[in-house]
Design a protein that fits this description.
Length: 251
Amino acid sequence: MPKLPDSVLSCHDVNGKLLPDSVLRYAFDQLLTNNGYVHLVNVPESFDHVAFLKEMGEFQPTPTGAVVGDLKPEAGMEDVYHAQNHRSLLPHTEGYEYEGIPPQFLALWCVTPASGPGGETTLLDSRPLLSRLTEDEHHGFLTTPYRWKSTEGLARHGVENTATHPVLEEYAGHVILRYSHNNLIVPEGDEAAVQLLAFCGQLYEESHTAVSYAPRDMVVWNNWRMLHSRNAFEDPARHLKRVQIAAPIAG
Ligand SMILES: [Fe+2]
């Protein structure tokens, strides 16, 4: 059963007054650190999503170069695995198909919610999952290089990337998890990878959080810690904006 969202932050206090920017930022940072994500609700029309996110770091362009991108169903793309169609996605972290450090944070905010069923962004904290790995398994995922490929949908637009790196990477005092349920290439006979995919798939199914959108709602998560995905939907008008925030340069 999906969990109820447990990291929701309202832009208004109990009396309906807008929170001062400093209070909102304080509560946002605390929830993001504690839970790995924040779902911002009751967002006023005056809220500047881009300005709020800019304070978190440099924006990192997506594979097609968009800095502030649009997520809406694209014509002729329903038959492939692709972020910009109506179909569900599979659990992943962003940027696994690149050699460099993946974006540290991802943000989606809602221009037009999907009417009717579906369209939720789903999330799962990887910490309980990683804590169940044995020391040997953890070491194996830090040191065994795997091949990763970009999606079928991007390939249709001429974007085809592959990268080679382990599932886990230590970086600037953090452990980065890279994951893709369908684009991690499992070598023949690699039981550890087969079990990881089975375990993550099952845990995602049982324990993910589903975020539903009202207009202007925003969800921000730590992409080094959280897996994310999307439920299928029907409404062609569903429209989200997307920003990726790069890691600070390690000093
Ligand atoms: Fe994604």
